[in-house]
Write a structure and sequence with these properties.
alpha+beta, Molybdopterin biosynthesis moea protein, domain 2, globular, 3 strands
Length: about 60
């Protein structure tokens, strides 16, 4: 069983912090399907693997 520290998803707040943008900006990115995400009730969870791959592909 995974511990909280080994979670395989990011929250919108975590992604916003990683990118240095607002949570509203992340909410606008999610429907673009640039990375995998899932809505669970009112919460959105973003696949770490998919997000990290997308971020690395930006070649910043």
């Amino acid at each position: 069983m995974e511990s909280i520290q080994e979670c395989r998803t990011y929250t919108v707040n975590e992604v916003a912090r990683i990118l240095g943008v607002s949570t509203n900006a992340v909410y606008r990115l999610v429907p673009e399907n640039l990375f995998r995400s899932v809505r669970i009730g009112s919460a959105i969870r973003i696949s770490k693997r998919s997000f990290d791959h997308w971020l690395e592909s930006l070649d910043l």
